[in-house]
Inverse folding.
């Protein structure tokens, strides 16, 4: 299954027959190794929503299903424009996120590459579908532009919804910037569709901070695109009646309160988790590791994901002015979780801070759960949906923990 | 899928199970005239069933499977319930995903199959119980009608949630005492056939499965119209003998009572003008073919 790859081929790319051919938009289907590592890009200044559109332009997507919810509505509508221009085979508005994710499932069962977007309450409305996607081994990609999910109504950035995705069997990647978002969307398809993985993927970003701000993003030329999805490389049959139907079982498992039922269910779930583990090697090759480490030898570290990383970078700059050196571990994939990488990176750290854009502090708990001597982990600061997390607040948290006197922000009037 | 695809390579013939051999040799794939009369003489697409003895749903399943015009290129989408216990035995690809999203899954599926196989006729049929179709899945069901998806929706109406033990459903008749309706259901049976017509279905039929020829005709009409024109809906009364206190041999009588004059399931059918035009032309073509075959024999 895990074939040796020669030095020049960083990932086991799809040997799709269409590589080298042109699609109806005159884009050349390009080997992912070439696409990601040998193509010269050009810098552009775009919002995150526009970046989603530009990624999908190159992604050879078959079907995308849309439904309005802030802050992903713009991206979903922009993909509609791509459909009108002929870049996608199928695009329509579903009636709710529950239905949209079902429609995506149908399209993926039928053999299309499928992309959709959702956010906040939409993610929770959709959630029944996600473990079904994973169990049915559908490599659908959903881009989650995180926002508040609680009452009273909030549309502001908040990453709590990601916590609900952690045990669905989907891969969950977390973009810090618009560039990450672009890269993760395209690379996400390739990893998700590897025959030894074949799982759905949620590419998450922080709503507004990433979707609605402009950033410099390096994009490849628009005359290339990813090779199309090959449904016949799936570990389960495509539901297109192009291969012989099989009688699946003597009796449906659900009818059997016996060992067979248990064993089938357990082994299937283990297989989904095994597929998640097998995704690591592909993600490591494509993302250049599941974490990024900067100054990892420092005694004080920030370990976090998403735009909390960006805020931490600024906090590092502020702390350096005061002579306090802090390192950074940026988590790129939350599922699979980079357990070994974080253990290794934090081996010598005395204080590990986990700033987060949600009140629950789930990332802090994830990190605490895998580290020895986890009293080193400070699961703070947290902010609730709707607030920014000023870098000064992160600085104050560090100084408080280290016992360094400072003038609190709140007293400055 | 052509019939060649299910043929067995010689080297593996001895390890294939006998039911697969009979499927290859004696199934009615590719026979445009297939119908309920093949039951018992040809290999059926349903291999046993795991429903209760005498369950009319099992009967309905066999008629439906015998009647679909294009089984070699048909995909079923099911839902949770008694029907999902039968699908594992069926020699047609079928999807079970969740409870209530069946018409959403079918929408994505049929659109994809049409894009991927523009030169083939791939039929997508939803087959679900009344809870899935009318209660939890009503939104997805109706929205697929509004969007004019090319799907046939078949509802096995047993007027309650059978698989979970006989709870009230929207298609239950008013006044019926059931679990979760301890003083009797307080509102009328939902009139989904009428709703389906108003929501844009081009062919709607509501009947019992007591008469296989009627079921065959309705299924064939529904699938052909869904393929060429737009959404179709069939509601089949398949009483849950267990939950309404009947014996195994009483299912047929129950259906006959329900379809007699004044009953809840007197057969009704609605055909849009567009669908009628199509069905008339199909019928004319069939007759001409028959005539030509007869003439050739002489």
């Amino acid at each position: 299954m895990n074939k040796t790859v020669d030095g020049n081929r960083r990932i086991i790319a799809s040997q799709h027959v269409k590589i080298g051919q042109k699609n109806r938009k005159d884009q050349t289907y390009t080997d992912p190794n070439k696409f990601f590592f040998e193509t010269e890009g050009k810098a552009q200044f775009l919002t995150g929503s526009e970046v989603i559109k530009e990624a999908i332009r190159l992604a050879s997507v078959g079907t995308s299903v849309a439904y309005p919810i802030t802050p992903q509505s713009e991206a979903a509508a922009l993909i509609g424009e791509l459909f009108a221009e002929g870049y996608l085979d199928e695009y329509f508005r579903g009636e709710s996120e529950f239905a949209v994710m079902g429609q995506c499932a149908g399209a993926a069962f039928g053999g299309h590459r499928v992309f959709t977007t959702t956010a906040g309450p939409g993610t929770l409305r959709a959630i029944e579908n996600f473990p079904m996607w994973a169990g049915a081994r559908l490599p659908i990609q959903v881009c989650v532009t995180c926002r508040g999910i609680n009452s009273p109504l909030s549309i502001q950035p908040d990453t709590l919804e990601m916590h609900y995705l952690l045990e669905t069997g989907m891969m969950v990647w977390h973009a810090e910037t618009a560039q990450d978002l672009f890269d993760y969307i395209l690379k996400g398809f390739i990893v998700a569709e590897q025959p030894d993985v074949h799982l759905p993927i949620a590419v998450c970003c922080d709503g507004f901070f990433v979707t609605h701000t402009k950033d410099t993003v390096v994009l490849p030329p628009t005359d290339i695109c990813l090779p199309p999805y090959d449904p016949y490389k799936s570990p389960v049959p495509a539901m297109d009646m192009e291969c012989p139907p099989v009688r699946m079982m003597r009796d449906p498992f659900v009818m059997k309160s016996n060992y067979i039922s248990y064993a089938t269910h357990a082994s299937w779930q283990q297989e989904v988790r095994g597929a998640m583990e097998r995704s690591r090697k592909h993600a490591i090759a494509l993302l250049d590791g599941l974490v990024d480490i900067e100054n990892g030898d420092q005694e004080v570290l920030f370990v976090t994901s998403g735009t909390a990383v960006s805020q931490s970078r600024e906090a590092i700059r502020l702390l350096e002015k005061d002579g306090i050196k802090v390192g950074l571990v940026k988590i790129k994939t939350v599922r699979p979780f980079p357990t070994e990488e974080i253990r290794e990176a934090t081996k010598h750290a005395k204080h590990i801070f986990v700033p987060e854009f949600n009140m629950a502090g789930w990332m802090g708990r994830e990190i605490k759960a895998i580290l020895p001597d986890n009293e080193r982990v400070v699961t703070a600061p947290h902010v609730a949906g709707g607030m920014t997390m000023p870098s000064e607040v992160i600085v104050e948290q560090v100084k408080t923990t280290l016992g360094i006197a400072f003038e609190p922000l709140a007293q400055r009037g | 899928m052509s019939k060649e695809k299910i043929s067995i390579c010689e080297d593996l013939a001895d390890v294939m199970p006998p039911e697969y051999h009979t499927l290859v040799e004696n199934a009615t794939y590719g026979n445009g005239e297939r119908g309920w009369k093949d039951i018992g003489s040809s290999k059926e697409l349903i291999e046993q069933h795991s429903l209760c003895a005498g369950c009319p749903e099992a009967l309905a399943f066999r008629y439906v499977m015998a009647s679909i015009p294009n089984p070699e290129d048909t995909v079923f989408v099911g839902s949770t319930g008694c029907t999902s216990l039968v699908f594992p035995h069926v020699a047609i690809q079928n999807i079970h995903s969740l409870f209530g999203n069946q018409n959403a899954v079918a929408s994505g599926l049929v659109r994809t199959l049409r894009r991927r196989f523009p030169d083939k006729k791939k039929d997508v049929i939803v087959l679900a119980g009344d809870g899935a179709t009318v209660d939890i899945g009503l939104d997805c069901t109706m929205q697929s009608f509004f969007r004019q998806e090319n799907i046939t929706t078949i509802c096995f109406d047993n007027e309650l949630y059978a698989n979970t033990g006989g709870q009230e459903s929207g298609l239950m008749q008013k006044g019926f005492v059931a679990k979760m309706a301890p003083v009797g259901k307080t509102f009328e049976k939902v009139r989904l056939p009428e709703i389906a017509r108003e929501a844009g279905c081009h062919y709607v039929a509501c009947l019992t499965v007591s008469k296989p020829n009627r079921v065959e005709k309705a299924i064939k009409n529904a699938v052909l119209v869904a393929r060429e024109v737009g959404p179709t809906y069939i509601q089949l009364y398949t009483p849950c003998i267990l939950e309404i206190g009947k014996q195994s041999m009483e299912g047929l009588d129950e259906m006959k009572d329900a379809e007699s004059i004044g009953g809840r399931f007197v057969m009704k059918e609605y055909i849009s003008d567009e669908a009628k035009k199509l069905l008339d032309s199909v019928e004319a073509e069939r007759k001409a073919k028959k005539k030509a075959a007869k003439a050739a024999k002489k």
User: Anything to note?
Assistant: Residues 259-287 of chain A form the longest helix (29 residues). The longest strand of chain A covers residues 42-47. The mean pLDDT of chain A is 92. Chain A touches chain B through 44 residues (CB under 8 Å).
